[in-house]
Design brief:
The complex is a heterodimer of chains A (448) and B (305). With 448 residues, chain A is an alpha/beta fold. Chain A has 20 helices and 14 strands. With 305 residues, chain B is mostly helical. The longest helix of chain B has 34 residues, at 75-108. The chains are: A alpha/beta (448), B mainly alpha (305). The A-B interface holds A 77, 80-81, 84, 88, 101-102, 105-106, 108, 211-213, 261-268, 271, 274-275, 278, 280, 406, 409-410, 413-414, 419, 422-423, 426-427, 440-441, 444, 447-448 and B 56-58, 70, 73-76, 141-144, 158, 160, 162-164, 168, 248-254, 264-265, 268-273, 275.
């Protein structure tokens, strides 16, 4: 029997007793549900917005809400500008998409979402810890993860090049539709460092961005944490010079950059895609969008691509996670409808629709939803993105964590980690000088 | 009482007519829509950003000059000040030189063909800079630069146009010069056309060579227009955002950040609007000082004349 669509009444019932303490002062009858304006992130994948629109319109029809949807691009920071101007003007969308750190920075203007999350967690299990880090303030949820746009950035490699040059078969290590084999245990940062010169020798160096945009910042954040190289701890103590792992990760990168193209320091989020699609690169770290475009522009490269888990470091395997988050302003005029929509968006059958439309690009923030068929089916080669959603021994990780949000946000925005690498490699600075510089920079980030 | 009223009305009407007849009143009335527009779009935001600069990060408390004190202690801030000055001054100097040279070339072309050249040379200035800078970005592309392809044809290795700090600075200045030089060209061309031909003839009779004519006739005659264009361009270049943002976004390692791009990074991307406002306000005293010196020089020369 098909699952009944979740309605506003059903959601309110589910939230029930738990929400009684918080009370819903804004409940209206479904026949006077008013209008709702929504600002979603504009999806890269053509057609992905349509699936989301359809879900929203069906919900609006059922709930008798007059819904207006805007898709706002992140190009030129437009989404961030909209959020900032609405917070200043105290007017705007009832539901708005935010970039990772923005809800925490705008927490005082955001409606608590404990009831929505509690209800969803009852149905789908716990939200991933990385999202909890970004969506919770003072013990309360201030926003809800977005089912679209949330991504991880694992390695995407050329199977044939790795097999021939480095003797590593990722397809065997991470078989489609199955758990990683025991051999995957050996997929570590050391293995990557040993393979990198071999791939460079055959004219297909690995290309891991070290610029100042999210693709670079995200994978470098996961690298640092897998070495245990946290720059700031959860209490805000600056560990840059005290934590020996920071020195180790910089020494590691001093070796690795020798085997990458010299221009990686100037790469933006498009550069690594272009590098893979051109056929030159043997590995990048990116969501499957690069493979998706290769399917259109260079099918031979796409047929040779495989996405799989991050290399393991001394402290574990961490997947670079970058969520889009949905929030409702305190000054919204239709909070109850907004919460009902957010609940509806996360119904499993709906999330699967968005993922089917985006070819599996969107990673659900509920681990229980990472078993959709789309990741099995997508090809060529079949199952190429099966290991894209983090499962098994991988933990999703936000670059900058576990520092307090205000510091971590600045560390992320100022791309402190990629700059540290650039300083002690391309910049010719010594590691101690780089550490001094980073410690001084981070001191300034603690502004309140 | 009844006899007084018409007289008062006549007097009032007469007063209005006199008021309307005063040129300054009419001028003010005609300019008032513009004054209102400037007040709404320039004066209000300027004061609002002053207000923002006095708040703490969460914009809840008044901190006075606290944001500026914080900035003055940051090395990165002083690096941005230095880079903004290098960017603006070198770009304006090269724009002025290029514009001056081009203006002379165009001036010496027969009048019939001048229109075509003027049109062509103005193209960089009329294309929206965000669009033309994207084209430059592709020419400088880290991996697939068209310039590097040309260099490779002559067996010259790749240049890391946007990845190496000095080349990145060169690249952003080059694009700014390309974009802004036509403004100087058109202003200087207009100025050149207003220099009386008799002065050159007199100089020639006195035996002046090409260089002496430029130095003793052209430059003194164009001095005011040069000052004004330099001032105007300095203001616009200091406040530039799009070129640096698109080409390097301030990188590598912050080595191409200028005031506007860094203010955006702090204020919008970093959610610290007061600090971003403080950075952008720092341009004001620098430009104010430059404007004062340049305008004073023009005014002094005007009085001497």
């Amino acid at each position: 029997m098909p699952k009944q669509p979740s309605g506003r009444r059903k959601f309110l019932k589910a939230a029930g007793a738990a929400s009684a303490a918080l009370a819903f002062p804004y409940i209206r009858t479904s026949y006077a549900a008013g209008s709702l304006s929504v600002g979603f992130w504009d999806h890269w994948v053509p057609g992905a917005n349509d699936a989301l629109t359809k879900v929203c319109q069906d919900w609006a029809k059922r709930e008798k809400v007059n819904i207006k949807i805007d898709y706002i691009t992140t190009q030129g920071n437009k989404l961030q500008l909209v959020g900032t101007s609405e917070a200043q003007a105290k007017a705007g969308h009832d539901v708005l998409a935010f970039l990772a750190w923005d809800p925490l920075e705008k927490a005082k203007d955001l409606e608590p979402m404990d009831d929505v999350i509690r209800s969803l967690e009852k149905e789908y299990g716990k939200v991933v810890p990385a999202m909890e880090y970004l969506g919770k303030k003072n013990g309360h949820w201030i926003a809800v993860p977005s089912p679209t746009g949330t991504q991880v950035k694992p390695p995407c490699a050329r199977l044939s090049l790795w097999k021939e040059a480095a003797g590593i078969d990722f397809q065997a290590m991470y078989p489609a539709g199955q758990k990683p084999t025991a051999e995957a245990e050996n997929w570590t940062w050391d293995t990557l460092l040993k393979a990198a010169p071999k791939l460079q020798k055959v004219g297909h160096p690995i290309g891991l961005g070290l610029g100042q945009t999210t693709d670079s910042i995200d994978w470098v954040g996961a690298l640092f944490h897998s070495f245990g190289a946290d720059l700031v701890d959860a209490k805000g103590n600056i560990l840059v010079k005290k934590n020996d792992a920071v020195r180790q990760v910089l020494e590691y990168m001093q070796q690795l950059v020798k085997y990458m193209p010299p221009d990686v320091f100037a790469w933006d989020d498009a550069s690594n895609n272009k590098y893979l699609i051109s056929g030159q690169g043997s590995m990048i770290m990116n969501p499957p969008s690069a493979w998706s475009v290769a399917k259109r522009d260079n099918p031979k490269v796409a047929e040779d691509c495989w996405t799989f888990s991050m290399p393991k470091g001394p402290k574990g395997r961490f997947s670079p996670y970058l969520p889009i988050i949905l929030g409702t302003w305190k000054f919204s005029k239709n909070k109850s409808a907004a919460k009902s929509l957010l609940h509806e968006l996360w119904q499993r059958q709906n999330v699967e629709k968005y993922d089917n439309a985006s070819n599996g690009y969107d990673v659900p923030s509920f681990a229980s939803m990472r078993d959709f068929k789309i990741w099995d089916e997508v090809s060529p080669p079949k199952g190429t993105v099966y290991h894209y959603p983090p499962r098994d021994d991988q933990t999703t990780w936000v670059s900058g964590a576990p520092a307090p949000a205000n510091v971590a946000n600045q560390m992320y925005v100022q791309s402190i980690m990629t700059k540290m690498i650039a300083k002690c490699t391309q910049g010719g600075e010594s590691i101690p000088k780089t550490l001094d510089w980073a410690a001084s920079e981070i001191e300034g980030y603690a502004r309140t | 009482m009844t006899a007084v009223l018409p007289r008062q009305r006549v007097a009032k009407r007469g007063g209005l007519r006199r008021l309307a007849r005063r040129k300054s009143t009419v001028a003010f009335a005609l300019a008032s829509p513009l004054i209102i527009l400037i007040a709404a779009l320039v004066v209000y935001p300027a004061f609002y950003s002053l207000h923002l600069a006095t708040l703490n990060k969460s914009m809840e408390h008044f901190v006075g000059a606290g944001n500026f004190e914080f900035l003055f202690k940051r090395d990165l801030f002083w690096m941005v000040v230095k880079q903004s000055c290098i960017f603006a001054i070198s770009a304006v100097v090269f724009k002025a030189i290029t514009g001056f040279v081009l203006a002379h070339f165009v001036h010496n072309i027969p009048t019939r063909k001048q229109r075509k050249w003027r049109g062509m040379l103005l193209i960089p200035w009329v294309i929206p800079p965000a669009m033309s800078t994207l084209a430059w970005f592709w020419l400088f592309d880290p991996s697939y630069s068209a310039f590097n392809w040309i260099l490779n044809q002559f067996h010259i290795g790749n240049v890391d146009w946007l990845g190496e700090p000095n080349w990145a600075r060169f690249s952003v200045i080059l694009v700014n010069v390309w974009y802004g030089a036509p403004f100087f060209l058109i202003m200087y061309l207009a100025a050149l056309k207003s220099v009386p031909e008799q002065l050159y003839e007199a100089a020639e009779i006195d035996g002046a060579n090409w260089w002496q004519k430029i130095w003793y006739v052209t430059l003194p005659m164009m001095r005011n227009i040069i000052s004004i264009t330099v001032l105007f361009s300095l203001i616009v270049t200091f406040a530039n955002f799009d070129i640096v943002r698109i080409l390097t976004a301030g990188g590598p390692i912050d080595q191409t950040h200028i005031f506007a791009t860094w203010a955006f990074k702090l204020g919008i991307e970093g959610n610290d609007i007061p600090l971003g406002a403080s950075v952008s306000l720092f341009m004001f005293p620098i430009l104010g000082l430059a404007a004062w010196f340049i305008l004073k020089d023009i005014s002094d020369r005007g009085q001497q004349a």
